[in-house]
Amino acid sequence: MITYVNDVFVSNEDAVLYSGEISDLAKDKKSEIENVGKIVIVDMAKPATAVATVPATATAIKIGKITSAVSTIIGRDGSVKYTPVIDWSNPIQKSDSVLSIRI
Questions:
Q1: Rounded-to-integer distance, Cα 66 and Cα 1, Å
Q2: C-alpha to C-alpha distance for 28 and 32, rounded to whole angstroms
Q3: Are strands 49-50 and 60-74 parallel, antiparallel or unpaired?
Q4: Would you say 64 and 40 are in contact if contact means Cβ atoms under 8 Å apart?
């Protein structure tokens, strides 16, 4: 299987990588949304958590970028949260053809 990645994320800034729970991106107000433009990497075994380094045990990862677009989430109790949209790559399978990932 061949995976084509259409976007290349390059930055010379510090702290451009978001790590933590994806659900923590959700805020009570749109104006409170942070981390726009940051890169997100998740191990597909634990897709709810963004990682700072790819675990050696990972068999597949996804890479994304946090956009300025906002999605509204309405909870069962009627509460409203706002979360930024993440543009994701397709899952990238670990194989002999993927030699390394550098962060």
A1: 27
A2: 7
A3: unpaired
A4: yes
Q: Which helix (H) or strand (E) holds 88?
A: strand 80-88
Q: Which residue type does 63 have?
A: I
Tens of pLDDT along 25-83? 999 999 999 999 898 999 999 999 999 888 888 888 898 999 999 999 999 999 999 99
Q: From the centroid of its chain, how far is CA 79?
A: 24
- Is the pLDDT confidence value at 84 over 70? yes
Global pTM value: 0.79
State the amino acid at position 54 in one-letter form.
V
Pairing verdict, β 17-18 and 39-43: parallel
Reported as a pLDDT band with limits 50, 70 and 90, residue 4 is very low
3-class DSSP state of 30: helix
